[in-house]
Amino acid sequence: MALPPSPLRAIVFIDGANLYHALKTAGHRANRIDPYKVAKKLVEFRTLVEMRYYIAEIDRTAPERIYRAHRELRALLATHADIRVCTGHIQYLRETNPCAKELAGYLAGLSLRLPAEVFQDLVGIASRHKEVTVHREKGVDVFLACDLVDLARRDVYDIAYLVSGDADFVPAVTIARSVGKRVFVASPDIAARLIRASDVAIRLTAGWFAGCEL
Questions:
Q1: Contacts of 8 (CB under 8 A, 6+ apart)
Q2: Helices (H) and strands (E) in the chain — how many of each?
Q3: Scanning 8, 58, 146, 198, which has its CA 20 to 30 A from the CA of 128?
Q4: Which ranges in the chain belong to alpha helices (H)?
């Protein structure tokens, strides 16, 4: 027998990057899982007031594969009127390539004699790739944390579902609960501090996403 609808108001806050990695870990293709179905499954019989999806905006400067996947995701999110997309930005940074650093160290301490051409080729690879360009999301987690607290204080929800396992959200979760709200966290891997700070921790296993496919 189906449970009657609950008057408890729920908002689902999805850390887009965390959900992507959760799906990847579970062996699912991110563009084959409907985030709205994920939200509906999480709240069960409670009233879903809104779903907010937090993600960094990716422009044409990104690699084509990443840009195309991002556009596909935005198109999917746009099919649901109840989803609010909240965007941060991407910052590109040059960082030391740990693989190149390890290769250089290995070559420097090598006791075996390699053919000169092979050795020089490997040294060249380590030198050319000693730095890599990486991208970092900026503003996304702060945006989500501020909304979690602001909407709690304005009494917009009774229960917040936070799709993330990141311990950085502990202060926001603590404040939301201090004003009488309940916070459920959901992720395959949830930091121990976040589990202790929340009301309920939901492990998103590979099988959990059954029924959430497009």
A1: 46, 47, 158, 159
A2: 8, 7
A3: 58
A4: 16-25, 35-43, 64-78, 98-108, 116-128, 140-153, 170-178, 192-197
Q: State the Cα–Cα distance between residues 30 and 196, nearest whole angstrom.
A: 29
pTM of the model: 0.76
pLDDT in tens, 180-214: 999 999 998 899 999 999 999 999 888 898 898 88
Identity at 66, one-letter amino acid code: I
At 193 the three-state DSSP class reads helix
Q: Which domains does the chain have, with CATH numbers?
A: 9-88+138-209 (3.40.50.1010)
Return d(Cα 178, Cα 213) in angstroms, integer: 36
Q: Is the confidence at residue 138, as pLDDT, over 60?
A: no
